Amino acid sequence: MSVEQPLWHALTGYRLLAVGYAITVYVWALDHFRHPVPGAVYLGVLTVWTLATLSRVSSARRCTKSFLAVDIALGVVGILLSVYVDAAGAVNPTIPTIWVAGPVLAFSLKGGWRWGGAASVLVGIANILEQGEVTRPTLHNVLLVCVASVGIGYVVEVVRASERTLAQALQIEAATRERERLARDIHDSVLQVLAMVQRRGTALGGEAAELGRMAGEQEVALRTLVSSGLVPAQGSPPGREQDEPLAAGAARGGSGGGGRRIRPSVKRRPGRGGGTGGSGTGGTGAGGVTGGPECDLRPLLSRHAGAGVTFVEPGAPVPLPEPAARELAAAVSAALDNVRHHAKAPAGGPAHAWISLEDEPDAVLVTVRDDGPGLPEGRLADAEAEGRLGVALSIRGRMRELGGSAELVSVPGQGTEVELRLPKRAAGGSAES
C-alpha cells in the first residue's frame, strides 16, 4: 500500500465529520439567520455531495481534476452564500464552516503543495469577500489553511519521490541479482570450457592452436561482457583459467606471514574431484535459495574427496533444504577448482586441499584450505578489475543469495582459507544440530 494512502483515508473521515459539524452549527444558530431556507438547501446539497463522492477521495487516481473543481466551487459558493443567509452577521462561521478545508487538502494530496497553495488562496479570497474586509481572524484562518495545505502537499511530494526512488532501486536490485546469476552460470561453464580449449589447443599446436587462440579471444570478450564492460588489464593471458589462485592452507583468522598453520586430523574417503567456479570472499545478504525438501550435505561434499582432497565430516547427517545445499556445494566446488588450477605445493607438485564440514547449532560451516603459496596482496581486487569474477560470482554471489557469508584469509607462503558460513535460519531453519 502506498505511504500516502492513509492520508486519503484520513481525508475521507475529515469530510464526513466536517459536514456533520456544519449541520450541527447551522441548526444550533438557526434562529439567528435572516434567510435560513437557502442555507438549509445548500447544506442538504453539500451532505448529498459529500456522501456520494466518498470514493472520489479514496485515492489520487480517483480524485480527478473535474471533481476537485466542482468540490472547491461548492465550498466557495457556500462561503459567498453566507452573506445572504446571515445578512445581519449574527453568526460568525460561514455555512460550510470547516468543510471547505477538505477540498483544499484534496488539492494538496492530488497535486502537491502548489495545488494546495492555489486552492487555499482561492478559499481565502472568498472568506475576505464574505467578511467585506480583511480582519485579523479572517487572515489568521486563511493563513492556517494555507500553511496546512502547503505542508501536507510538500510531504506528499516527498513521499511520492521516495516511492519512485525505492521502486527504481528494487528494479535495479532484481535486475542485478538476475544478471549475477546468469554471469555466475556463464563463469562456471562457458568460460571454463573456453579456457580449457585455449590451453589444450596451445599445447597441441597446429590447427588446434588457432582454435585455442580463437577460444581465448572469445573468453576475454565474454568476461568483459559479464563484468559490465571492464576491459582486462594488458598483459593478462587470455586463456588463464579462473580468476585468482586459491592457495588455501592458513589457519582460520590468521593474517600476515606469521599466521599459524593448522592441519586437521581427517579421514580420507574415496570419491571424485570436480566442480567449477572460483574462490571468493563475501558478506551477508538476503536469502534467495531456500525452502524445498531437505537433503544431507555430506554426500554432496564427499564426492570431492580423493588423492588431492581430504574431507572431514561430522558423524551425523547435516540436513539443509536441497536448493541451499546444492548452492553451498557449488561454492565449495568453485574453491577446489581454483586449487587444482592455480595452487602449487611447496615441493612443486599440486597443492593438497582439505574440506572441513561443521554442523553448528545455528549455522553450517564449511572450510576449504590448501597448502599452496597464498594470494599476493591486492590479487582479488585486480582479478575483479580484469573481469575475472570467480570471487564475486561463484562464491560470494552464491553465499549472498543464500543469506550466508564467505570469508577468505590468505597467508603468503602458507596458503589461504575460504570459510563458508550458512545460518540455518537463512537456509530455511530446517537443519538440526
Automatic annotation (TrEMBL):
Residues 272-291 have a biased composition (Gly residues). Signal peptide: none annotated. Keywords: 4Fe-4S, Cytoplasm, Iron, Iron-sulfur, Kinase, Membrane, Metal-binding, Transferase, Transmembrane, Transmembrane helix, Two-component regulatory system. Residues 1-167 form the DUF5931 domain. It is found in: Cytoplasm. It catalyses: ATP + protein L-histidine = ADP + protein N-phospho-L-histidine. Residues 229-293 are annotated as: Disordered. Its EC number is 2.7.13.3. It comes from the Bacteria. The keyword Transferase applies. Residues 260-271 have a biased composition (Basic residues). The chain crosses the membrane at residues 12-30, 36-54, 66-85. Member of the two-component regulatory system NreB/NreC involved in the control of dissimilatory nitrate/nitrite reduction in response to oxygen. NreB functions as a direct oxygen sensor histidine kinase which is autophosphorylated, in the absence of oxygen, probably at the conserved histidine residue, and transfers its phosphate group probably to a conserved aspartate residue of NreC. NreB/NreC activates the expression of the nitrate (narGHJI) and nitrite (nir) reductase operons, as well as the putative nitrate transporter gene narT. This is Oxygen sensor histidine kinase NreB. It comes from Streptomyces ovatisporus. The lineage of its organism: Bacteria, Bacillati, Actinomycetota, Actinomycetes, Kitasatosporales.
